[in-house]
Please model this.
Amino acid sequence: QVRLVESGGGQVQPGGSLRLSCVASGTIVSFNRMGWYRQAPGKQRELVASIRNSGATTYADLAKGRFTISGDNAKNTVHLQMDSLKPEDTAVYYCNYLQLMSGYSFWGQGTQVTVSS
Model:
């Protein structure tokens, strides 16, 4: 089992920034991928960005140029720096941990991000 604890959500005005953090604990394996997904009301959960333990990153088009994902393998932590936020970025953001060999996937409880003036 892997437990994920997210922090850093909140309310911000359009054009503002937020930094989300996620700490993983439990059965951590070296070959993994951590990422951020989001789900807005009435919409499906979608990938925002992910990072492998190797440092390789993937960004959804919605995140390119505005969001930056980073990770610290020693601390089992992943961060999502979100800049130039838009009202359409409003959603619950979920941290995900994927064990690449087994395919087991774990989710955090989610953190609310609201972009509004």
